[in-house]
């Protein structure tokens, strides 16, 4: 069953009225209306207040809050309130508290302090969820169920005995017999042959490196254990109030959970995004995260559920967002498919560990820079309803597979611990962004036929079936770029025969004889065709070419003169192998963008993304520069923010934004070819 998310742009934030007396609630509602708030997230950490004793509930305050909001026309993203177990629960059942890999049981006093596998926690959580669903499921203000909060944020794994038994059951289901587990993990190595599943430990602290198959299955299990818990609550919600869509808030590109699997269980993907104002590349990483959120939902609109109005309070140094940046970054999320912009949180708290986090309504009140910016953005977003439901269409895909990420990052004893998924992804994503190309994320086994170009920054773990799908994509006319250290192991972390790139060797026409990691700070020059230059950092490889054309060579270091990048024509398409991590992948990808007919619009600080709806397209222009910019636009339209007609060019102030509505033919264009 799929429940549709209503097609309006949401604006609002986390609201914790339980921390304030009622007279403040009245002021809250008045200021929310002033700020254009349309939805708030309620009750995320309210369990101990809602159920002060087992089975005794106090809903009166929440009833009144929901009523007041409804009367003001503000809808509710209602939490199931299970993100922090109440003290009475962990006192009565201390075994609910999670245990670290070192065997330390973590004490109560923060949040999320529960073991994902605990049946006791699950029973209590689903009981509260059922009670909440029965009480509020029919209330017209409740538009979204918010299950728990940021699964895996603090506790992504637990090593207690209950978790260990759960892991053993999970393994038994996956492998059937312990012999097939031994075979999959290769437990002959270092004498680890198991006789029974109940001998397999949770990978607590060990004397030395563990088995890679064990480490990978543990990561899969931990994601599944939390997913099971989320599904237990979702099942209750579907049972009691199936008309309300469900979500749980994601944490952007988050290591511990396989969001591809999670997203299929949600009616709407929601994200909490906290780009760092101190990071000059923050907007690029944010774009990457938003592209992922859109892709997780199969291209449907998603929702930015949390962002900071200004500074956060959990980095060593927390810079505020300069004037205009909160607005700019909110529009960036909307441009990349979010149907709204929400915040953490509404009002500045009086106590607690998030005292110094920025809020929509600062402690200094509404006569503040932050509140003025919030109010003004709320007013603008209210006028952008037409954008809701429109889609971002991308012609380039980047492959992301959590199994691969885990296999690469969780394994010990690797050639270089610098070769990590993010290290491989970043140069490729950044080059795509800087070429002005909007990309989707996809899995290697997906149907990739609609993309002109597919980039696999790293596929260390590659299944035979995925390699076959990639071969099919290329022979059908696709362009595929494969990054270094790919096709090394199968889904159990066993080496592919013949070495890397394993099942891609024929398609790519290369063999890796030896990997050649680089020390920190070392680089190796690479010469590209037509005198282009690139530079390898962190990683390079000694290649043997058989059947591919060499399109770039190492020109320094021990590998000088050897092939660095190859291209092989295959069927109607072509496949490239890049044997190193480029410091800047731009020059390397430029001819490939060309060959794949991807329209490049070099990024000069102005980001341009197109959303397309039924009858119109919406061109988002986002000036990330601290100086004004002028952008040429090749089709006439109306800037929905200013109401002005746009013809030929748009002038954008520093951090300025335009949302140009373009009607008529061409409104269904993809992100290729709309901008002059
Ligand atoms: C999120 C969390 C919120 C709040 C916020 C602060 O991770 O969901 O409850 O803690 O961070 O940035």
Please report the distance between the alpha carbons of the first and last residues.
Answer: 43 Å
Query: What would you call the shape?
Result: globular
Q: Please compute the radius of gyration using only Cα atoms.
A: 26 Å
CATH class membership of the largest domain? Alpha Beta
How would a textbook summarize the main sheet?
Answer: 9 strands, parallel
Structural class: alpha/beta
Account of the protein in words:
The protein folds into three domains: 289 residues, TIM Barrel, CATH 3.20.20; 200 residues, Class I glutamine amidotransferase (GATase) domain (Rossmann fold); 70 residues, Immunoglobulin-like (Sandwich). It has 676 residues and is an alpha/beta fold. Strand 12, helix 15 and strand 13 form a beta-alpha-beta unit. Helix 6 packs across helix 8. The longest helix is centred in the middle third of the chain and has 29 residues. The strands form four sheets. A nine-stranded parallel β-sheet has the order 5-4-3-2-1-9-8-7-6, covered by helices on one side. The protein has a nine-stranded mixed β-sheet with strand order 11-10-12-13-20-19-18-15-16, sandwiched between helices. It has a five-stranded antiparallel β-sheet with strand order 21-22-25-23-24, with helices on one face. It is built from 17 helices and 25 strands. The radius of gyration is 26 Å and the shape is globular. The model has no long low-confidence stretch (mean pLDDT 96). The site of beta-D-galactopyranose has 11 residues, from loops. The site of beta-D-galactopyranose (GAL) has 11 residues, from loops.
